[in-house]
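The methods section describes the discrete structure representation at length, but only in general terms. What matters is that the chain and its backbone geometry are given together, residue for residue. For illustration, here is how one protein appears when written out as sequence plus structure tokens:
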Amino acid sequence: MRKKYKEMISTLPKRMPHHPLYDFYQYEGFWYYSGYLEAALCMQQSFNPQPSDIFLCSAPKTGTTWLKALTFSIITRHDDDFANNPLLTKVPHDCNPFWKLIFSPIQKF
């Protein structure tokens, strides 16, 4: 699969970004780092959303941990009583499952 995405990306318009190790590629009107574009292409072609899916998105340093704790509390509000809430013994990042990308967004050289 990765070979297929790499071949497709190689045909797209390309420009050098400010960082000399990574190239930008234009796809559907946006510029992407190649690693991010690979992941986006994979998601577009293979992700099958479910009605119960929740996407929690925030920029770094904008309250992501608090947002995860709030989301977990809302989703599990009927599961446990307050004395047994997992947030009392775990950090929100451990309570919320997340999908690890198949592709590393930043390629190591």
Notes: Residues 99-109 have pLDDT under 50 and may be disordered. Residues 34-46 form the longest helix (13 residues).
